[in-house]
Specification:
Chain B: Belongs to the metallo-dependent hydrolases superfamily. Chain B: One of its GO terms (molecular function) is metal ion binding. Chain B: This is TatD DNase family protein. The complex is a heterodimer of chains A (about 220) and B (about 290). The longest helix of chain A is centred in the first third of the chain and has 16 residues, at about 20-35. Chain A is an all-alpha fold. Chain A has a domain at about 5-155. Chain A has helices at about 5-15, 20-35, 40, 45-50, 70-80, 85-100, 100-110, 120-135, 140-145, 145-150, 155-170, 185-200, 220. By secondary structure, chain B is an alpha/beta fold. Chain B has one domain (about 5-270): TIM Barrel (Alpha-Beta Barrel). Chain B is built from twelve helices and eight strands. In chain B, strand 4 (about 100-105), helix 6 and strand 5 form a beta-alpha-beta unit. The longest helix of chain B is centred in the middle third of the chain and has 17 residues, at about 115-130. Classes of the chains: A mainly alpha (about 220), B alpha/beta (about 290).
């Protein structure tokens, strides 16, 4: 549930972007920090200016950066440049999310995990996570279940989030907090889900075995 | 055959249509914002609609291996409703978004002064944001409406190569061809234009600056009309290269002027609609 820090993001990004994009990013970071330009005008352009592909090469890499795209990393860095703190920062990220396209919303959800943790920021960020988890866009849901969401969602919402990921085919290894937050109730929910699939003669997603004990799938037969 | 539908209202279509379009060769499309059948009564409903065009709808399209872009604008019909006029205020926010490749649909419905104002204001926004413009021509009094649209475009000073004038027919094509604007045609089951008439027009005017679309929406329309017209062109003796010009190079050339066109997501689709293209996350089978 520990998000990459800004230095890690920048280092990975520098492997990905050319000099022009790097310059754009440096100027954007300075302008946001000094208030010369509003983050709202820079946030939408992150993908256009710095690319959109995966942040790191190896799709099999197990590190936290594996699920990040270059534009996610750029947007997270832009957030870290904001001079505001507390509820003011919360208001700014809420506006970026509200007025953002799907990619910008993902940037806010992932970026929130990189920012210094503050109670007011958590209060502002949680409704955004819940909004994302209500959607059916797998990219948004996965970002909602990234580090920030995984750290701050309460247990019922976190369990529902994990179940929704399994339901939509989002790999659980991309979901932050598994296995640390996988409790008995989540195991029960996923076991029920696996039973339902089994009863329907449908394939059981492999991911459920990260949480479900196969022996519990057909307890009657075991007895 | 690769197809780019330069004008189709996917929000009113089903995922079965996306599937059928992919199978017919559609790999990219542009969804212009327009009227939605039921008149809207507030800016809020426009905002939710625009958010769908840069949010849910591109996601839905990507699941079927199709790259989705949109145009954003206040349509002429609703420009007449004072409750919707403030939509003009929120447009700049959307014109900055990645998936937005033009301003539109603009133009005339009943040629009122309110429509004049909204048209001119949005042509200015297009110039500011360096975006192409999609101009709708009216269903009624079409020829006069087309001429008046061309006058407004000329007066605005926007470069003509950045404007497409859409829904043309045998009567209105000539003036648009002469203007230097791109010529748009909507192929409908039995109204605006059909495949064979389209082929005849292309015999007369060639394939340069021609954009042929299905304009499919919630009315009687067919999202495969692009493919059907392409086949009608081949049957009429057009070379495959000419078909590719009309159904791929032209829309890429026109909307590419935005600098925001992305057609690469289409290459990532696996053809059976089960991979979420453009993202490393696999969608799996539900």
């Amino acid at each position: 549930m520990t998000a990459p820090n800004p230095a890690e993001l920048r280092a990975a990004l520098d492997e990905r972007i050319d000099e022009t994009a790097g310059r754009w990013l440096d100027e954007a970071l300075t302008d946001i920090a000094t208030g010369a330009r509003a983050i709202g005008t820079l946030f939408p352009a992150a993908g256009r200016k710095c690319g959109r592909g995966p942040l790191v090469d190896d799709a099999a890499e197990s590190g936290t950066l594996r699920t990040w795209s270059s534009e996610d990393a750029v947007r997270a860095l832009l957030l870290t440049a904001l001079p505001s703190t507390g509820s003011e920062l919360g208001t700014e990220i809420s506006a970026l999310y509200r007025y953002g396209d799907a990619a910008e919303k993902r940037g806010v959800l992932r970026g929130a995990g990189v920012l210094r943790e503050e109670a007011e920021l958590v209060d502002a960020g949680l409704p955004l996570v819940r909004d994302a988890l209500r959607s059916n866009d797998t990219g948004l849901i996965a970002a909602g279940m990234a580090e920030f969401g995984a750290r701050h969602l309460d247990a019922p919402a976190y369990r529902q989030g994990v179940l929704k990921c399994v339901f939509l085919g989002i790999p659980l290894r991309d979901v932050s907090g598994v296995p640390e937050r996988a409790d008995a109730e989540l195991a029960r929910m996923l076991t029920d889900y696996a039973r339902e699939r089994s009863a329907a003669g449908r394939e059981i997603p492999n991911d459920v075995w990260l949480v479900v004990d196969p022996a519990q799938l057909h307890p009657a037969e075991e007895a | 055959m690769r197809i780019f539908d330069p004008h189709i209202h996917m929000s009113s279509r089903t995922t079965n249509d996306y599937d059928a379009m992919y199978r017919a060769g559609v790999r990219a499309l542009v969804e212009p914002s327009f009227w939605v059948g039921q008149p809207r009564t507030s800016v809020g409903t426009f905002v939710d609609y625009f958010d769908g065009l840069i949010g849910w709808e591109p996601f839905r399209a990507s699941q079927y291996g199709i790259a989705h872009h949109c145009t954003i604008g206040l349509n002429p019909k609703e420009a007449n409703d004072p409750r919707c006029r403030d939509v003009l205020e929120v447009l700049p926010r959307y014109l900055a978004k990645d998936g937005v490749v033009a301003v539109g649909e603009l133009g005339y419905d009943a040629m009122t002064t309110e429509e004049d104002d909204a048209f001119a204001a949005q042509l200015e926004l297009a110039a500011e944001h360096e975006l192409p413009v999609l101009v709708h021509t009216p269903h009624r009094d079409k020829e006069a409406g087309t001429r008046r649209s061309l006058d407004v475009i000329r007066e605005s000073g926007i470069p003509v190569e950045r404007v497409v004038v859409d829904h043309l027919n045998e009567v209105t094509v000539e003036a648009v061809a002469e203007s230097g604007c791109w010529m748009g045609f909507s192929i409908y089951p039995d109204t605006k234009m059909d495949e064979d008439r389209m082929v005849r027009i292309m015999r007369g005017y060639g394939v340069e600056r021609m954009l042929v679309n299905s304009a499919a929406d919630w009315g009687k329309s067919d999202p495969l009309k692009t493919s059907k017209t392409a086949h009608a062109m081949l049957a009429a003796g057009f070379e495959p290269a000419a078909v590719d010009t009309v159904f791929w190079s032209n829309p890429v050339g026109f909307y590419g002027q935005s600098g925001r066109l992305r057609t690469e997501t289409s290459a990532l689709g696996d053809g059976d609609g089960t991979t979420f293209a453009g993202n490393s996350i696999e969608r799996g089978k539900r």
